[in-house]
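1st attempt posting a full record on here, be nice pls
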Amino acid sequence: MENSQTSIQSVTFRQALRVWCKIALLSFGGPAGQIAVMHRVLVEEKKWISENRFLHALNYCMLLPGPEAQQLVTYMGWLLHGTWGGLASGWLFVLPGFLSILGLSITYALYQTTPLAGAIFFGLKAAVLAVVVEAVVRIGRKALKNEVMIGFAAAAFLAIFFLRVPFPVIILLAGAAGFLGGRFFESKFHVIKAHAAGVEGVLDAKARQTKPSLVRVLCVLGAGLAAWFGPLGIARVFLGPSHVLVQEGVFFSKAAMVTFGGAYAVLAYTAQQAVHVFKWLSPGEMLDGLGLAETTPGPLIQVVQFVGFMGAYRQSAPFTPLWAGILGSLMTMWVTFTPCFVWIFLGAPFIEKLRENKILSSALSAITAAVVGVILNLAVWFALHVLFARGAEKSWSWLHAYVPDLHSLDPGAALVAVFAALALLKFKRGMISVLAAAAVFGLIWKLLFKL
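the predicted structure (as C-alpha cells):
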C-alpha cells in the first residue's frame, strides 16, 4: 500500500474533482453531517488530509461568518490545489443543493406542493441523524484527549443548549482559555500538534508556496470584492436601485456578514425582513422553504435561495416570473457564498503559517473541544426535529423550545435512524449505500401510510 506522502503527491486535479462531487452529493444534515462526510472521505478513506490539519482548518472556519462546512471544503481544496482547487471544491459543494432547491422552488411556485420530494428525503433526513452521531463520536474521540478538553466540550454544550450563549462568544471564551492554559499547562492544552510526518510534510510544502503578504492581501481583497459586488452593480445600473434583484443582492450581502454560528443564528433575522419588511413571501412559505433546504444537500443557509426565488418570482417585471425567480436564486446564492471564498483565500496562508505556534495551537485545541460540544448540540436538536412528528421550534435551547413527548415520536424516522446507526457504527457500511437504502425506505413508508 502506498504511503500517505506518495498518495498526496499523486492526487491530480481530476481525482480531486471526483471527490468534491462525492462530498457535495452526500452533504445532507447540516454542518455536523457535512463535516462528518468530509472527515470520513478526506481523512479516513483517502488520507489526503491529516486529523490535525483537518481540525486546525475547522477551527478557523468556525470563526468566520458564513457556512463553516462550505468554507472548510474550500480550505481543503486550496490546500491540495491552490486557488483553483478552492474554487472548484467550494462551488461544487453548493451546486447540488442549488440545483435541487431551484427545481423544488419552481415546482413549489407552480404547484405549491412537493410530496414526492418530501417522501424521498424523509428517509435521508433520518439516516443523516446517524451520520451526525457518528461525527460527534469520531471527532470527539480524537479531540477530547484529556479531562480538560472534555470539560471544554461539556461546558460548550451546556452554554449553547441551555443558556443560549451565542456561538461566537463560546468560541472566543474557549480560545482565550486555551491561550492562557497553553502558557501554564502545555501538556493539557497542546492537543492539536503542528508537526506530523508524511502527508503533513507534503501539505506544508504546498502551503508555503502561497506566502502571506500585504500585496497578496490587497490582490485577493480587490478581486474578491469585485466578484462579490459585480453582479449587484450590473443589476443596479440596468434595473435601478429599487428593483427586487438589487434589494435581494444588498440584503443578503448584509446577511452573509452576520451568519455566525450556523444558519439558524441568522434565519430569524432573514425571515423577519423577508416576510414583514420586503414581503417577498408569507410566514408559512418561509417555513416551507426551510423544509426544502433541510431535505436537500448543501448548507442549510441555502434556504435564502428559495426566498430569493419567491421574491423575484412575484415582482418579476421586466422579466417573466420564471426567469425572474431563476435570476433571484442566482443573485442570492452569489452574494451569500462568494464572501466565503474571500475569507478563506485571505486567511488560510496566515493560518497555515501559525500552525507552528504552540500557544495558538493550544487555543485552537480548546476551540476544537468546544466545537465538539456545539456539534453535540446540533445533533440533539436535529434528533428532536427529525424523530418527532411535530418537530421542535427553531431554537438552540430546550428552555425556549418545544419538548416533544413520546406520543409524537415518528416511528418511520426512528426506524431509519436506528438501522442507519447500526449500519454505520457497528457494521461499517458505506455511507452511499446507507443513504440510498434510507431514501428508498422513506419513499415506501410515505406511500404506504400516505403521510
